[in-house]
């Protein structure tokens, strides 16, 4: 069977297994799509592709780089059609929840839904790719989760190892803070300024803010901050 990659999950039943390896993700593939036709001259990430000497690209990577067509089904049941060329609807502009049976896109509007999935994930294999900027192709380098008790999540270019119970505890902590003084404070770097401390004291979350300050630079905390509900929620 060979390795399983996120682009293979993305391609679903269209994956073109063969005796070649994909330039981007190293999945087994055939010779249908070549690097000559599908890797742009301005592609500069040769240091992170899995098979830089390969001359071929798998169907999944061909799709995620916007060279193919696919239906984009949203996590909440919505639907968008991607068809080359499309400057406004491209796979890189979305975050993704991929399984053997599903290819579901989501945005920051679906944080509540993806938060529930990460806290109580399905049986593996699956891949969760969170795009914060919408500007980078992430799927070809995303990891596969093979254990629902401890698994990787890709947040922009960072791969974060997740233990769901620990993440749930951090979400409870940062959720209590964001509910009172807003979500942006969770991601601020360095020690909190006096103004934040005064605001936290006024609304009764000063101790929580100080506890968060100690751990907010940890990768799991950064994921929790991204997943935390905004103040209005």
Descriptive report:
This protein is α+β, with helices and mostly antiparallel strands. A hairpin with a 6-residue loop joins strand 1 (20-21) and strand 2 (28-29). The chain has a seven-stranded mixed beta sheet. The protein is built from eight helices and eleven strands.
Q: What attributes characterize this protein structure?
A:
single chain; 233 residues; alpha+beta; seven-stranded mixed β-sheet; two-stranded antiparallel ribbon; 8 helices; 31% helix
Helix content: 25-40%
Provide the spatial order of strands within the biggest beta sheet. Answer: 6-5-8-7-9-10-11
Number of strands: 11
Q: Quickly give the structural class.
A: alpha+beta
Measure the end-to-end span. Answer: 45 Å
Order of helices and strands: HEEEHEHEEEEHEEEHHHH
Strand-helix topology:
Layout: H1 6-11, E1 20-21, E2 28-29, E3 33-34, H2 35-38, E4 56-57, H3 59-64, E5 70-74, E6 79-82, E7 95-99, E8 103-106, H4 111-119, E9 126-130, E10 151-155, E11 158-162, H5 164-181, H6 194-203, H7 206-215, H8 219-227
Parallel strand pairs: 5-8, 9-10
Antiparallel strand pairs: 1-2, 3-4, 5-6, 7-8, 7-9, 10-11
Helix pairs in contact: 5-8
Compact description:
The protein has helices at 6-11, 35-38, 59-64, 111-119, 164-181, 194-203, 206-215, 219-227, and strands at 20-21, 28-29, 33-34, 56-57, 70-74, 79-82, 95-99, 103-106, 126-130, 151-155, 158-162.
